[in-house]
Amino acid sequence: MSAPEMSAGTAEVYNLGRDPETVSQRVQRLQREARALAREQVEALEHDLESLAARAQEIADGGDAYAVGVREMASRLASDLPQKAQSLRAILERSAKA
User: What is the pLDDT along the chain (98 residues), one digit of tens a residue?
Assistant: First the structure.
């Protein structure tokens, strides 16, 4: 009987006392790693959208220093981007439960 695997965060610590990884085990491990990396990237995108929304709001509130069309577009972005970020979060949470 081999010793249980230990993990640190999303990185796996390889137990030298266990049998070599089978192809299917390797595929499963790589799929888990790919899903974790994809989740991190989507979370970073969510954060970026929130930051862009804050910057857009600053421009929308910037007054005459910005052209009217720029302020209007920034205002629309400031209201749309947080909703997009929330949608990404909801999709991530639903897919994590599946």
Answer: 445 455 445 666 767 777 888 999 999 999 999 999 999 999 999 999 999 999 999 999 999 999 999 999 999 999 999 999 999 999 999 988 87
Q: What is the pTM of this model?
A: 0.72
Helices (H), 1-98: 23-60, 68-97
By C-alpha distance, which of 80, 88, 84, 98 is closest to 38? 88
HSE value, Cβ hemisphere, 13 Å, CA-based, for 66: 16
Give the chain's largest Cα–Cα span. 73
Distance CA 23, CA 84 (A): 39
Taking residue 67's Cβ as centre, other Cβ atoms within 10 Å add up to 9
